[in-house]
Amino acid sequence: MTDSSNPLNSNTLKAAFREALKSATKGSSGMEFLLMATSDGYALCDTISDGSNINRDSLAAMAASFAGISDGLASQSNKPAANGSIIETNAGLLVCKQLKSNRHEVVLLGAFEQSTNHGIALWSLNKVVSDVLAILENYN
Amino acid sequence: MQIQNKVLFIGPMGAGKTTAIQTLSDDVAASTEVQNSNKEMFNKETTTVAMDYGAIQLDDNQRIHLYGIPGQKHFEPVWPVVAKGAIGAILLVNASQPNWQQDTLYFIKAFDMLAKSNSILVAANRITDEQHDELAELLDQQGYCLPLLTTDPRFHDELVLALNILIANLEIEISIDD
Ligand SMILES: Nc1nc2c(ncn2[C@@H]2O[C@H](COP(=O)(O)OP(=O)(O)OP(=O)(O)O)[C@@H](O)[C@H]2O)c(=O)[nH]1
Ligand SMILES: [Mg+2]
Fold first, then answer.
1. Rounded distance, CA A63 to CA B135, Å?
2. ipTM score of the complex?
3. Could you say which of 3.20.20.140, 1.10.260.40, 3.30.450.30, 3.40.50.1980 is the CATH number of the domain covering A7-138?
4. What is the pLDDT of residues B78-122, one digit of tens each?
5. Whose CA is nearest to atom 30 of ligand 1?
6. SS3 B112
7. Cβ-defined contact of B50 to A41 (cutoff 8 Å)
8. Which of A93, B43, B69, B74 is 20 to 30 A from B35, alpha carbon to alpha carbon?
């Protein structure tokens, strides 16, 4: 991403996001990693370990695509825009949340261990959501 | 009998894929537009993140389902998902963009299977006569024999013409293969 005019590129903002994500991952045992991206698919920050073979940029793009499809699916079903969506895998849940402030749209992806159920996963992610929203509002 | 076919709209960011599907579709097209955070790449308000969808009744017995890909390269893993089952594609080229030649070849190669069977029609917009010649030569040099049109994605009739030429070309290709 080369767009310096995009406020989401601000290093202070990214650092604040990174802190919020880090402390959330530490505080919640079932959380494998968190990733945040702009709604159009550019990676902002994550807690994926350095040795991991996950490609952050592809994951960010896929998370944004998935969020976009969720919104489209909701609107085709006559529902208002989606707030979030869940993918169930044999190795645990992936939960995606769309966050909007007045100026910014971001997508938050949480990956959870197999032992974490829907309720706990959503509850843990919602805590991060409020932290991230507070940061977004502050930087508006 | 109703024939149902799927046609793909491909091309880079800002080429006009979403515009074309919205212009062509009989009903309001479905889209996955979000705020564009990369205005340096292309200065417009929104960009597609997953797909566009619309449909047009081309004639009494032919319904075409129109699918658009998200043009930005980081969405490349999504392209084959959207492309699945398409009989052909319209490749939109916006020749007012700096790297339009490279972008054109990039998309032809990314949709190699369709290009090899001549199932792509190239529809250029914002193009000068000189650029049109350059594009024709470029395709020729690369050994592609693809129909090339100048089409404004905001105009319904021009798109219908492009779609009809693509379908006619596909039928010729199929009968040659037979
Ligand atoms: N002047 C001019 N503008 C055009 C023409 N064709 C398309 N446009 C404009 O160019 C822009 C194209 O935007 P989109 O249709 O969103 O492009 P897209 O290919 O879907 O882009 P992504 O989804 O971001 O990959 C729109 O603002 C159109 O109005 C043309 O022939 N002439
Ligand atoms: Mg589009």
1. 35
2. 0.89
3. 3.30.450.30
4. 999 999 999 999 999 999 999 999 999 999 999 999 999 999 999
5. B152
6. helix
7. no
8. A93
So where are chain A's domains? 7-138
pLDDT digits (tens, 9 = 90+) for A71-108: 999 999 999 988 999 999 999 999 999 999 888 899 99
User: How far, CA to CA in Å, does A8 sit from each of A4, A138, B36?
Assistant: 9, 13, 12
Neighbour-count burial of A88, counting CB atoms closer than 10 A to its CB (0-12 exposed, 13-18 middle, 19+ buried) = exposed
Cα separations (Å) of B147 from A116, B13, B21, B105, B134? 54, 22, 20, 15, 14
Give the mutation target among B44, B149, B158 for probing the ligand 1 site: most ligand atoms within 8 A of CB.
B44
Q: In order of start, what are the domains of chain B with their CATH numbers?
A: 6-177 (3.40.50.300)
**Chain-centroid distance, C-alpha A95:** 8
| Beta strands B62-68; B52-59: pairing state | antiparallel
Is A5 a residue whose pLDDT tops 50?
A: no
Between CA A82 and CA A97 the distance in angstroms is: 8
The tens digit of pLDDT for each residue in B18-75 reads 999 999 999 999 999 999 999 999 999 999 999 999 999 999 999 999 999 999 999 9
Q: Which of B38, B50, B51 sits opposite A42 (nearest CB)?
A: B38
Residues A128 and A89: beta-carbon distance below 8 Å:
no
**C-alpha to C-alpha distances, B75 to A68, B69, B110, nearest whole angstrom:** 12, 9, 12
CA–CA dist B97, A6 (Å, integer)? 21
Phi, psi of A27 (to 5 degrees): -75, -15
Say which amino acid occupies A12.
Answer: T
**Phi, psi of B116, deg, nearest 5:** -65, -30
Overall residue count recorded for chain B in this entry = 178
Q: Please, what is the angle between helix B17-24 and helix B156-177, to 10°? A: 100
Determine the pLDDT at residue A7.
Answer: 58
Task: State the distance from the centre of ligand 2 to the C-alpha of B37, rounded, in angstroms.
Answer: 14
